[in-house]
Structures are given as C-alpha cells and as structure tokens.
Amino acid sequence: MELRRDLGGGEGDVLFGTETNLDIARALFELGGVLFGEFDLGPTAGRSPIYINPRVLISEPALLRRIAHLIHHEIQADQARRRPRLASFAAVAGVPMGGLHLATAYALVSDTPLIYVRPDAQEPALEGRIVPGQTVLVIDDLMTGGTSLLRTARILEEAGLTVRDFIVLIDREQGGAERLHAHGYHVMPILRLRTMLTYYFESGMIDSQRYRTAMDYLERTNRRG
Predict the structure, then answer these.
(1) Which of these, 139, 192, 141, lies nearest to 163 by C-alpha position?
(2) How confident is the model at residue 215 (pLDDT cuts 50, 70, 90)?
(3) Residues 114, 93: contact at Cβ < 8 Å?
(4) How far from chain centre, in Å, is Cα 99?
(5) Which long-range contacts (CB under 8 A, 24 or more apart) does 40-48 make?
(6) Whole-structure pTM over 0.70, yes or no?
(7) pLDDT tens for residues 44-103?
(8) 102 and 68 in contact (C-beta within 8 Å)?
(9) How would you classify residue 175: left for phi > 0, otherwise alpha for psi between -120 and 50, otherwise beta?
(10) What is the pLDDT of residues 132-167, one digit of tens each?
(11) Is 66 left (phi over 0), alpha (psi -120 to 50) or beta?
C-alpha cells in the first residue's frame, strides 16, 4: 500500500507540503500521545484499541508553533482560492480544554484575536473582546463525535458571534464531521486517524496486528454510526 502524503483523499482534505503533517503524526507517537491497548472512551468511541492524547504537545512549544504555522499557511491558501471553503473570520476560539493551546498558538502566529471559552458553566462563558456579529473560527485538538465542538459553537453563538468552520488537529473519523455538517458547519482536519495508522504501519512503528485491529475497529464504529 502506497501512502499518499495528504490527509485522506477527500474534498475536505487539508494538503501541506511533503512530510509535514506526517511529521506531526510521528512526533505525537514519539511523545507518547498514541497508545494501543483497550480503552473505554465513552458512548461515541466505545471500547477502543487506540487512544490519542494530543495534549502531550503542550510539552513541546516548538512543535506547537509548527502546527500553528501549518494551520495559518493552509488558511491563507484556502482564502486565496476563487471559492474558499473557509469563511473569513475575525477571531479564533479553542474548544476547552484541548483546543485552547492550539488556538492560542495560532493566534500568536497569525496575530488573530483570541476568545477564551470557559470550560465551566459560570458567567461570563467567554473571555476576551466580544464583538457581536463577528465570525469566529473554532479550533480543537481531537474530534470524535463532535459534541464538544457543537457545545462550543452554541456558546459563541449565544453571545452573538457567528461560527461556520472548525479546524481539528486529529479526526478520529467516528461521525464528527458528518454530524457537524448536518448542523450546517464545515470541519477541516489536519490529520485523520486512518492516515496516521497507515503511516505508523508502513514506517514500521506498529505491527500488522495492531494496525488491522485498529482499522477493523474504525470500520465497525463507522457502520454502527
């Protein structure tokens, strides 16, 4: 099997230069952010043979900066298209808590205003300069079923802001993109789990048994959804 250096071969793919997104996948693996075994991940992901923890990235500021530059580059490339897929936006927000460090890194790299969504139910739910009517791009580190992304969008919209697009570092490909689309949102992943697994297998980082077990699990959960 030949691994394309892209994000999975679909209309919503984010394409970077050679190796960059797969370098992120490798770095995450080497930091201990990709684990294999048996994990209970709740009703959406169920009992999973693979656990992804992107929060280990906070220990590597240089890698966070690199991811932020990649996101910024892809947004600029998209907005230069005749028909951009991403709406123009005036601010960025991170899904608490995993998306906050990525949104902060992107805000610093791109000089984009940041809105902080509080993870608790206390008022105010948002911190930062809120300008009703502005469009906000929402960033998260990991998407499974899309529940946290939808919750964050609703908080922003209740404050008078507009949400149209999400960027996620890793899509577990378990119905999140489809669910967001059904609610009128567009999601752009940096990496898809199948791409990561194929890269790990073809690079000799995992054996065929772990690869097949994880891929079979994804097929089962997709059919169930």
Answers:
(1) 139
(2) very high
(3) yes
(4) 8
(5) 41/144, 44/144, 44/145, 44/147, 44/174, 44/175, 45/144, 45/145, 45/172, 45/174, 45/221, 46/221, 48/217
(6) yes
(7) 778 899 999 999 999 999 999 999 999 999 899 999 999 999 999 999 999 998 899 999
(8) yes
(9) left
(10) 999 999 999 999 989 999 999 999 999 999 999 999
(11) alpha
Tokens for 92?
């960025």
Tokens of 93: 């927000």
In this structure, what token pair is assigned to residue 154? 């609703």
Mean pLDDT across 116-125: 77
pLDDT at 2: 34
